[in-house]
Design a protein that fits this description.
The strands form two sheets. Strands 2, 4, 5, 6, 9, 10 and 11 form a seven-stranded mixed beta sheet that branches. The radius of gyration is 13 Å and the shape is globular. The protein has no helices and eleven strands.
């Protein structure tokens, strides 16, 4: 299986972006999808995750209320809508797939990442 991110880019503070994650080789009705990010010089952190069992969602405190994760099982796609972006959201964002919403190493599939830059 594979996951591939898209949708990164340059956005001004306060702006919005929507990241997409396309899964192939496995279906989202049996796998969770998590978004992680890593900023230069900082540790990787989990931003959000959506479980497959009942669609439960998880958000890091730093993005709660600004980011929304959703999925379309028919298209095998997961989206991360990012609003009210801040410069500290600048990072490479990675999509991952796994049996559960877990840490990075516990996931089964990892994307190559897409860069989000928030700057004026």
């Amino acid at each position: 299986g594979q996951v591939a991110e898209s949708g990164g880019g340059l956005v001004q503070p306060g702006g919005s972006l929507r990241l997409s994650c396309e899964a192939s080789g496995f279906t989202l009705d049996r796998y969770a999808i998590g978004w992680f990010r890593q900023a230069p010089g900082k540790e990787r952190e989990q931003v959000s995750c959506i479980d497959y069992i009942d669609g439960r969602t998880y958000y890091a405190d730093s993005v709660k209320g600004r980011f929304t994760i959703s999925k379309d099982n028919a298209k095998n796609m997961v989206y991360l809508q990012m609003n009210s972006l801040k410069p500290e959201d600048t990072a490479v964002y990675y999509c991952t797939g796994g049996y559960y919403c877990s840490g990075w190493n516990a996931m089964n599939y990892w994307g190559k990442g897409t860069l989000v830059t928030v700057s004026s």
